[in-house]
Structures are given as C-alpha cells and as structure tokens.
Amino acid sequence: MEFLGTTRMKKLLIAAILAVLALLYVGYYEALEDGDIETILFIKKHPTFQMKFHNIHANDGEIRKVERLTDEERNLIIDYCRYRLGIDTELKTQDDVEVCRRK
C-alpha cells in the first residue's frame, strides 16, 4: 500500500532539485539600457552559488585599462568572464579585458 503523501513528496523533491539547479546555473547582472536598469539573466557556464555578477562594461562605454583596475574590479571581471562567458583568465593584459568585453 502506497503512503498517501508519496506523490506530493516526489513533487516537492523535484521542485527542490530544480530550485538548487536554478541557483547553481542561473545568474544575472544589471545593465543601464535607455536610462532604465534592466536585469539580464544568463545560464552560467560553470556551477556556482553566486547569483549576481557585475559586467563592468555594461554601464559605461569606456574601455578600462588593465593597469588601472582595482583588485575588486579585477575580481568582478574574472568572475563575470568565467561564469557568464566560460573564459578563464587572470586578467593580466589589456587583451584579456577586451576578450571579456567583446562577448
């Protein structure tokens, strides 16, 4: 005899698994578009619990010089490149910054 809540438990388990997968594989960043801030969703190239990313190039048109980046900006770009674009970089050269900008 089947337990009365088995179907419901299976549905809850499936919902929980889907929620964890979404957490691991869906990310977002905010971009200024026509004066409004838009949330851009994307599928991560690698799983991580980090959800919010910062696309340093999304809100300004200027090209950031690698030697002028703060450690925080460098880490934001490295995370964005890895999880959004699937590019592993140490961000040592201007070309590294450009590769992450073009995508």
Short description:
Keywords: Membrane, Transmembrane, Transmembrane helix. This protein has 103 residues and is α+β, with helices and mostly antiparallel strands.
For this entry, give a set of tags.
transmembrane; 16% strand; alpha+beta; 103 residues
Structural notes for this entry:
With 103 residues, this protein is an alpha+beta fold. The chain has one domain. 43% of the residues lie in helices and 16% in strands. It has 3 helices and 2 strands; from the N terminus they run H-E-E-H-H. The protein is elongated and about 60 Å long. The termini are far apart.
**Radius of gyration from CA coordinates:** 19 Å
Instruction: Spell out the helices and strands N to C.
Output: HEEHH
Query: How many structural domains?
Result: 1
Lateral strand order in the biggest sheet: 1-2
Keywords: Membrane, Transmembrane, Transmembrane helix
Transmembrane segments: 12-29
List the helices and strands and how they pair.
Elements: H1 6-25, E1 26-33, E2 36-43, H2 71-85, H3 94-102
Antiparallel strand pairs: 1-2
